[in-house]
Design a protein that fits this description.
By secondary structure, the chain is α/β, with parallel strands linked by helices. It has twelve helices and twelve strands. It has a seven-stranded parallel sheet with strand order 8-7-6-9-10-11-12, with helices on both faces. Strands 2-1-3-4-5 form a five-stranded parallel sheet, covered by helices on one side. The chain starts with a strand and ends in a 10-residue tail after the last helix. The structure holds nicotinamide-adenine-dinucleotide.
């Protein structure tokens, strides 16, 4: 059997090579090219395709693969929002993802950035670069004194809650479906308004779906404590960026750590040196000392990358051999 893996980065190669060594029954071809209608030609004669990209899996691309009799697509990531689901169903695709590659990678980074906000490290670094070594007026706050409101009690939200509790913070967790174990532990609330009212930090861990689009907007910010800190390691569409800017201007929001932005594909994972961003909201947010932006790197650890590579290749091989996989994504 033959599998082609698209968009393979240098940091993925060692894991790809290990996997090939352990699976000699598979002829594995790798390319650093992303998968599109043109590069699809490279998949001729393959039984499965493995990919990870922000670029869309369009109807044209899926049709092209279908014409080449390829119907097994295995993603190295979780999100399937860039797949034309209608076309995937129409052309009979079986698609797998890697739903849990390392919740700790994202949660640990969320806490890191929260601590950076609380300790005001961006302000200190800016002062330090100017050889200003004075302490005042950048006095910090402690995590153990915070009430951290976690929205979304899935894999990542739970680890985030666990780490924050380890630091001694009070933790409140909201999920649209109640979680009995968290109710029993006394950390669950079924009221988002209560979480907004009580929390000094709000951290988002829900998926980008219709019901979560712009869930943090002007109305939501107005329900929060003045000076609340916002952490978003999930998806850019959860926050209305213009409303966030207004809330930062008024001081209603005291700071934000954002690993994701609404239009991040314009700039993230690209070398933008000497280029304008053409993303005014990013420019506005990025120049603020109380806003920390990272280019969707929360997931980017050895552990997570290894799991993404190995589990996607395993799923592709399994699909080819058996036509099934426990990582099959429900489309449509
Ligand atoms: P998950 O599916 O395990 O958990 C999501 C939780 O949100 C579930 O408990 C679900 O019931 C709950 N939920 C869904 N809709 C809700 C709503 N409207 N209100 C409240 N709760 C709701 O997902 P996860 O693995 O914990 O990941 C969370 C998000 O993190 C993902 O959706 C993804 O967008 C993001 N993520 C980011 C990175 C990164 O590098 N920054 C990496 C991986 C995942």
């Amino acid at each position: 059997m033959k599998i082609i893996a698209y968009g393979i980065r240098e940091d993925e190669r060692p894991y790809v090579e290990n996997w090939q060594w352990a699976n000699p029954d598979v002829e594995l071809v790798c390319t650093d090219k992303l998968l599109d209608v043109e590069s699809a030609e490279l998949a001729a004669g393959c039984d499965g395709v493995v990919a990870y990209q922000q670029k869309s899996y369009s109807a044209d691309l899926l049709k092209r693969l279908h014409e080449m009799n390829i119907h097994n697509l295995s993603l190295r990531n979780v999100g399937v929002d860039n797949i034309d689901a209608e076309a995937a169903v129409k052309y009979g695709f079986k698609i797998t993802n890697v739903p849990i590659y390392s919740p700790a990678a994202i949660a640990e980074f969320g806490v890191t950035q929260l601590l950076n906000l609380l300790r005001r490290t961006k302000e200190f670094q800016n002062k330090f670069a100017k050889r200003d070594y004075r302490w005042a007026p950048n006095i910090a706050s402690e995590l153990n004194q915070q009430t951290v409101g976690i929205v979304g009690a899935g894999h990542i939200g739970r680890v985030m809650a666990h780490i924050c509790r380890g630091f001694g913070a009070r933790v409140m967790v909201y999920n649209h479906r109640p979680k009995p174990d968290l109710v029993k532990a006394g950390v669950f609330t079924d009221s988002l308004d209560e979480l907004y009212k009580e929390s000094t930090v709000i951290s988002l861990h829900v998926p980008a779906v219709k019901s979560t689009y712009h869930m943090l907007n002007r109305d939501a910010f107005a329900k929060m404590q003045k000076g609340v800190l916002i952490v978003n390691m999930s998806r850019g569409s959860l926050i209305d960026e213009q409303d966030l800017i207004a809330a930062l201007d008024s001081g209603q929001v005291g700071g934000a750590a954002l690993d994701v932005l609404e239009d991040e594909t314009k700039i993230f994972n690209k070398d933008m040196a000497n280029q304008p961003s053409n993303y005014p909201a990013f420019d506005d947010l990025n120049q603020r000392e109380n806003v920390l932006i990272t280019p969707h790197t929360a997931f980017y650890t050895d552990e997570a990358v290894r799991n993404m590579v190995e589990q996607s290749l395993d799923a592709s091989r399994e699909l080819i051999l058996t036509g099934a996989s426990d990582k099959l994504v429900k489309l449509g």
